[in-house]
Amino acid sequence: MKIVLFIPPSKFSKNVARDLVYGCWCKGKRIAGVQFPPLSLISVGTVLKNDGFEVKLLDAAAEGLALEEVITRIKGFDALVMLTSTMTLNEDAQILNALKKAQPDLLTIVFGGHVTAEPKTTLERPGIDIAVKMEGENVIRDLARAWRDEQDWRAVKGIAYKEDNEYHENENYPLIDNLDELPIPDRSLLPLDTHYYNPIVKRLPYTTMFTTRGCPGLCTFCASPTFYGRRIRSMSAERVIAEIREVARLGYKEIFFRDEIFTVFKERVMKICRTIIDEKIDITWIASARINSVDREMLGLMKKAGCHMIRLGVESGVQELLNNVKKGITTGQTEQVFAWAHEVGMDTHAHLMIGLPGETKETIEETILFVQKIDPTVVTFGIMTPYPGTPFFNELREHHPELGDGTCMDLSKLHTHAYYNETFTALSAEELQKYIRKVYKKFYLRPGYIFKWLKRVRSLDELKRLTLAGTNVFGFIWGKD
Question: Which PANTHER family match (predicted)?
């Protein structure tokens, strides 16, 4: 059985973080664009390869392929596996439908956060045969085994499908409890001579890694627990180091850890860092953390081990708004963490939203001042959006059933346009869309900030990246996006 792992030639695809299974949008233009290698697909593909299946990755977005070329390249494959998301599902389904018209016997399988939250409406779209809920590795492997061995694929746990126009949904497949059992992703599946770009990465080529799954947070705006569950499951420090060694052997210079909370288990982090230092592994890296999951000791050792940037969900500078979305942190904790990062010399990437429940013009101004106070290296702002699979979306849909499965929203403008925010804030959509430009202007166009970045430039490559980043930021601020 021949299986193709597929990223479509979509106008959205280069802006969707398809290495994050629950479909995080990473529009990226504010910081010069972003491309991630599709690690979640590669993880599925590696499990399939190890089980004896012939597997190929076709990243049509990264390779710049037209639909006609895709149709040619998938001839001869029996099944296609695609990671989809709320903002791309409608377009993805159109592409899959076109592929099935060209090759009617092609089996199409989709997975991801949106599919997990909305399997029934996903299958209402022509072109999609099977929806896989939650983690894909074991479910898709078992599906492939069933077809290969001529068993009843309908009995496989974790799937939804339609037969004779009737919807069927099986019980969920158990989550993978021991992540050490997952094989190291086979990065040879990635297209040759395709280097994925990211403006905050210092050294190329870079790759991504996942070392944990799950998040105990109660944030009402986040879909991660719907897909991975609230219980944190982590790879051992030994398993993480084994993959880091392999990545370095392959010639990668930097790792972008895509875990929601890389720092959740302190002793694990400290052991990983000490091993990198002791073995003198030539790798730099970026990681994400919750504000309340780090301390100065950990940040200091991470910096010594090559971590040059920590990404932190700040969300707002107003405590009341943080409480409204059950963020579970305080503004005081945020100030302390950024102060520690400055002390140890680590760059910071702050993620914030405007348009949270209870937001007013005054609270936005407070957040602007707060961000300037904590002084992150880079910042990403967005307008809070009701996203399928989140408690916030489910509550909002009770009052606005026209939301449906969420794909009615023009999510090509996600993070820069307002959706229903006027129903839970004191601002209109037009006001929020003006403010999102203002918050970027107030942060990025400070003379001191610009001068600080110019002093950091040490190479022509850095200058090119800074120029591209500045062009995109200025273009957005002045309304050219």
Answer: ANAEROBIC MAGNESIUM-PROTOPORPHYRIN IX MONOMETHYL ESTER CYCLASE-RELATED, BLL1977 PROTEIN
Residue 290 Cα to chain centre, angstroms:
16
Place of tokens 């760059």: 347
* CA angle (162, 4, 73) in 5-degree steps: 115
Q: Output the CA torsion sign for 279, 284, 290, 294.
A: positive
In angstroms, rounded to a whole number, what is the distance separating the alpha carbons of residues 60 and 83? 13
Those residues with Cβ within 8 angstroms of residue 355's Cβ, 6 or more apart along the chain or in another chain: 383, 384, 418, 421, 425, 427, 432
Prior bond of 191 cis (ω within 30°):
no
Please, which residues bridge with residue 79 across strands? 3, 107
Nearest to 411 by CA among 109, 127, 10: 10
User: Could you check whether the bond before residue 37 is cis, i.e. omega within 30 degrees of 0?
Assistant: no
Judge whether 158 and 170 are in contact, CB under 8 Å. Answer: yes
Strands 254-257 and 79-83: unpaired
Token digits of residue 105 = 């016997």
H or E, element range at 457:
none
The CATH number assigned to the domain with range 2-169 reads: 3.40.50.280
Instruction: Give Cβ neighbours of residue 263 (< 8 Å, ≥ 6 apart).
Output: 269, 287, 289, 290, 293, 294, 298
For the chain, where do the domains classified as CATH 3.20.20.70 start and end?
200-444
Token output for 365: 């101004």
Domain with residues 200-444, CATH architecture: Alpha-Beta Barrel (3.20)
- Is the pLDDT confidence value at 30 over 60? no
* 383 backbone dihedrals φ, ψ, rounded to 5°: -90, 125
- Give pLDDT tens digits for 204-262: 899 999 999 998 889 999 988 888 988 999 999 999 999 999 999 999 999 999 999 99
Q: Give me the chain's average pLDDT, please.
A: 91
